Amino acid sequence: MDFNTYITRVNTKLEKCLPAHGYLTKAMRYSTLTNGKRFRPILTYSVANTFSTHLDLVDSSSCAVEFIHAYSLIHDDLPAMDDDDIRHNQPTCHKLFGEAQAILVGDGLQTLAFKVLVNDNLIGSDTKIELIKSLTHASFEMAEGQAIDLSIIAKQVNITTLEIMHRKKTGALLNCAVNLGAIISKNCNNKDHAILNIFSKDIGLAYQIQDDVLDIETPDELLGKKQYSDKYKNKPTYPSLLGLDKSRLVFKDLYEKAIDEISLLSVDAVELQQLTAKLQERLF
């Protein structure tokens, strides 16, 4: 499958599900429809497609995970959180619309994610419950991760604490994106789901460690946000604890391990392996 097909599908679904009128409409559309990588929904589609699941059944899950992601970025960028002015090479939501509106936009997107799932008439009630359980768990873990992140600024921490934070703040939603695709797929058995769960946790941690490295190595215009933001905020990172070279080895090993893991699936995992390779190259 061409991954651009997935991007087109989720963009169409996001456009349709976002409100066309209302006080929050402009800010919600600005924050959701502009310049997103969409690799979380791509993961959901790709997992489902790997198990020959019709993509019509996957649209609401892919849309929901992207709404949660968009909400998390808006809130993370707020002055009380990470205090970022640029996201995807454009002003963050609060810089353009004000802090109060940004908070409300995030709140609206979070609830809209669950509305999309609940209103999907193609999915049975039992499956909806499992999808919602996965999404709520990930949303809470993500908030916990952000709380840890804020609590360790300018502090000495060990690598275990950093790993826990990354697995929650970044990894939980990536894990959820994969789990949603597995839940919606009838051909995905318990063993396959367990393999995908390990796979998604590894790429979630790898992605964030790689992000820590890119924050040091990549200029603003390519990064889409300010370079050295972690350093300026005095945040502990993998590079600050392990150094750049060792951090690179850690995330590369995790990606390679993830690719090996999905080779154990009961179905052909070539598409997921290709997607993982693209994630490692940051092509999304």
Structural write-up:
- The structure is a single chain.
- The chain has 284 residues and is mainly α.
- 71% of the residues lie in helices and 1% in strands.
- The protein is built from 15 helices and two strands.
- The chain has helices at residues 3-17, 25-33, 39-50, 59-76, 93-97, 99-118, 125-151, 159-169, 171-183, 190-217, 220-223, 229-232, 238-242, 244-262, 270-280; strands at 86-87, 90-91.
- The protein has a two-stranded antiparallel sheet with strand order 1-2.
- Strand 1 (86-87) and strand 2 (90-91) form a beta hairpin.
- Helix 1 (3-17) crosses helix 4 (59-76), helix 4 runs antiparallel to helix 6 (99-118) and helix 7 packs antiparallel against helix 9 (171-183).
- The mean pLDDT is 93.
Task: Summarize this structure briefly.
By secondary structure, this protein is mainly alpha-helical. It is built from 15 helices and 2 strands.
Throw out a few tags for this protein.
about 280 residues, mainly alpha, two-stranded antiparallel ribbon, 15 helices, 2 strands, globular
Biggest pleated sheet: 2 strands, antiparallel
Average pLDDT, to the nearest integer?
93
Helix-strand makeup class: mainly alpha
Residues in β-strands, percent: under 5%
Number of beta-strand segments: 2
**With helices defined by DSSP (H or I, 4 residues minimum), what is the helix count?**
15
Layout of strands and helices, then pairs:
Elements: H1 3-17, H2 25-33, H3 39-50, H4 59-76, E1 86-87, E2 90-91, H5 93-97, H6 99-118, H7 125-151, H8 159-169, H9 171-183, H10 190-217, H11 220-223, H12 229-232, H13 238-242, H14 244-262, H15 270-280
Antiparallel strand pairs: 1-2
Helix pairs in contact: 1-3, 1-4, 3-4, 3-9, 3-15, 4-6, 4-7, 4-9, 7-8, 7-9, 9-10, 10-14, 14-15
